[in-house]
User: What shape does this take?
Amino acid sequence: MRLLWSIFICLSLPLAITAQSTGISNPPDTLPDNFYLLSTVERDGEALPEIDIKEVVIIGRESKSKKFPFSRYQRLVSNLKKVYPYALVVRSQLGDINLKLQELPDDRERRKYLRQTENSLFGEYEDDIRDMTISQGRLLIKLIDRETMNTSYELIRQYRGSLSAAFWQGIARIFGTNLKEEYDPYGEDIIIEIIVTEIESGNL
Assistant: This one.
């Protein structure tokens, strides 16, 4: 498997000395097109050169630790890049659905609209979801909570009722997943959060 994410930083600020008006020429620059344009910022009465550098996340060397081996990290990056777009779809669709539900006059029309929307989405994404592994499904459940601030169980309960939520929770349990699982970006899901942030910023 390809190394999906390795970060190496090497900052080199070439020093360009301009020729003075005396006519004395400098040796030709071997890399004339590689330079940084520094801005000048005044701090505490002193003019200082400044350059904006892109924020990066540093990940250590390949680990042999059984707790989180680097090969597992590579698989996690690959899986997140596959399922994260679907979490964004859920967030977008929920926003559209909620706006539409507010426009409908009664519960009957709302239930009809939800059935039609469900059938449409199922037809559009059924093959993609069926191709996901159990590990990818678990990640998607977590990411849905990250993007919508609601667990998958709560979303089903709100839009389909408690009976449907309980039914699908039972099915999820059979496959070793939990629709009530919450996203914890500062705890057990911190590695996922780092990777997703890098995906969002376009670094992965």
In short: The CA atoms of residues 91 and 147 lie 6 Å apart. Residues 1-25 have pLDDT under 50 and may be disordered. The helical segments are 70-103, 107-130, 134-148, 152-160, 162-174, 190-200.
